[in-house]
Amino acid sequence: MSETQVSAPAGTRDQVYAAIDGERDHQDLKNPNLLALGEEIALVMKYALLAFNGPPDQEVASEPWRRETFRELAAFCVRALERYGAPVRTMVGPIGAVRRPYEPGTRSEVYAAIDSQLDYLDERGRRTYTTGQAAMEALASATAVLEHWSNEPFDPTELMARVKLRDLAATLVRLFEDTGVPLRQPDPPPPPPRDRDGWKAGVDAKVVAFVDEAERSFNTISPSRWADLRDYLEELKSGVKTLESPLTMAEWVAKRKDHH
Question: 177 and 241 share a domain?
Answer without folding.
Answer: no
